[in-house]
Amino acid sequence: MESDNSFQFIRGMNDLILGRKGGRTTVKIIDEILRHPYNASQLSKELDLDYKTVKYHIYLVLKSEVVVENEMQYGTLFYPSQKLINNLSEYEQIKNHLK
Fold first, then answer.
1. Angle, CA of 17, 49 and 16, to the nearest 5°
2. What's the number of CA atoms in the CB half-sphere (13 Å) around residue 37?
């Protein structure tokens, strides 16, 4: 059953990154979150992206369970999900198909 969940997660990541025009932006956001937890405003500044664009991509990666959120008093921080951490090598392979 766990391998089915992992397969579904990897398939979802593939669709999220390679199946959309915005896959490169999504990867930039995921990579930053893998380096350090950020809120949407910080990601917007760090990546020089429009705040609404960041919020849209955050919505997608949350929905796909690639990142998780931790609500704080002054904003929500985003962290890599355990599913992403467990499948980092697959994520890297998918990401490399963008180049």
1. 10
2. 11
The pLDDT of residue 99 is 65
Strands 75-80 vs 67-72: parallel, antiparallel or unpaired: antiparallel
Distance of CA 2 to the CA centre of its chain: 21
| Of residues 4, 9, 21, the one with CA closest to residue 88 | 9
Q: Token pair of 70, please?
A: 């931790």
46-50, 60-64, 84-88, 95-99: least confident range: 95-99
Q: How far is CA 46 from the centre of its chain?
A: 15
- Measured CA to CA, the distance from residue 54 to residue 46 in angstroms comes to 11
Per the CB < 8 A criterion, the answer to whether 51 and 45 are in contact is: no
Tell me how crowded residue 49 is: count the other CB atoms within 10 A of its CB.
Answer: 16
d(CA 9, CA 3) in angstroms, rounded, equals: 10
In this predicted structure, what is the pLDDT of residue 98? 86
